[in-house]
């Protein structure tokens, strides 16, 4: 997949667990886990915005385009 999700790195940098993030943005742990593992096929802008607010980052810190 040419889009890499760097949620693990952002959580580690912020010393936050996936469970804590899920609670802060009101998203199920299962859905957040799918995103974190890169298995998500899409993400809503509202979800991306909530993640960025909770982690105090920019969308480009979470999503990265990589060459195949």
UniProtKB/TrEMBL annotation:
Residue intervals of the HTH cro/C1-type domain: 7-62
Superkingdom of origin organism: Bacteria
InterPro entries reported in the protein's UniProt record: Cro/C1-type_HTH (IPR001387), Lambda_DNA-bd_dom_sf (IPR010982)
Name of protein: Transcriptional regulator
SUPFAM superfamilies linked: lambda repressor-like DNA-binding domains
């Amino acid at each position: 997949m040419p889009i890499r999700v760097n949620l693990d790195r952002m959580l580690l940098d912020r010393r936050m667990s996936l469970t804590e993030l899920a609670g802060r943005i009101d998203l199920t742990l299962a859905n957040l886990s799918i995103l974190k593992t890169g298995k998500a096929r899409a993400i809503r802008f509202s979800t991306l915005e909530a993640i960025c607010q909770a982690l105090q980052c920019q969308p480009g810190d979470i999503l990265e385009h990589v060459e195949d």
